[in-house]
Amino acid sequence: MATMSYYAQNARNLKTFSLLYLGLLGASIPFALSPYYEPGVSEVLLLLTASVGAVGAITLLLLPAELFTRRFAAGSYIFYAAFTTLTVFFTGASSSELYVLYFPLLLVSALHRSWKVKAASLISALLGYCLVVLPDILGGETYALMPVLFRFVVFVLVGGFALAVARRSTAPATNVEEDYYAPDEDGSVLLHRLSDELEARRGVQVAVVLVDPGREVQDLELLLERVRGRIGEPVLLGEGAVFGLVLSGVDDRVVESAARRTLAAAASLGARETRAGAAIYPRDARSAEDLLVAAGEALEAAFEVESPSAVVLASRPYAEGREATR
Question: Rounded to two decimals, what is the model's pTM?
Answer without folding.
Answer: 0.55
